[in-house]
Structures are given as structure tokens and as C-alpha cells.
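Input sequence (69 aa), recorded before submission:
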Amino acid sequence: MDKNWTPIFTSGNLQNAELIRSILAHNDIQSVIINHQDSLYKFGDIEVCVHRDDVVKATFVLKENESPL
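Predicted structure, C-alpha cell format:
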């Protein structure tokens, strides 16, 4: 992965990561989901990453939405 992507959210649940990605997309912030989970046992983390130039804006957007995740 490119060094310019920064994780801003980590979860063990793919649906939570997709919700965060959707909120970011709604606010015109490009993001990617990186799934580090084991495919069989489903343990590990799922990260939502944004470009390093968007970290402050993405953090602000998530705080404004007060995500309970």
C-alpha cells in the first residue's frame, strides 16, 4: 500500500468499517478498507484509511457524526 494512506478507524467488524467509509464518501473523502482478518476464523482488524492530506478533515467529519462505533 502507498505510504500516503493513513488508518483513521479500526474495527473487527466489516459492517462498521463500511459505515465509516460511507460517511466519508458522503463528505467527498476518498477512503479504502484494508481487511487484515484471517479468512477462516475472522480474527484481526479491518482498517479504514484515508489519504494523509485528508486525515484532519476525516477526523473532523467522524467526530461531527459522533459515530458510536
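Checked by second reader. Helices lie at 14-26, 55-65.
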